Amino acid sequence: MGMGQTKIFLRRAAHVAVLALVAVPVAVVLAAPPAAARSEAGSAALARRMLAQLKVARALSIRGYSRDRFRPHWPDRKGRCSTRELVLARDGRRVRRNAACHPVRGVWHSPYDGKVLRSERLVDIDHVVPLAYAWRSGAKRWSPAKRRAFAGDLRRGELLTVSHSANIAKGGRGPQSWRPQRRAYWCRYATTWIGVKHHYRLFVTPKEKVALLNMLRTC
Question: Mind giving me the DSSP string for 131-172?
Answer without folding.
Answer: HHHHHHTTGGGS-HHHHHHHHT--SSS-EEEEEHHHHHHHTT
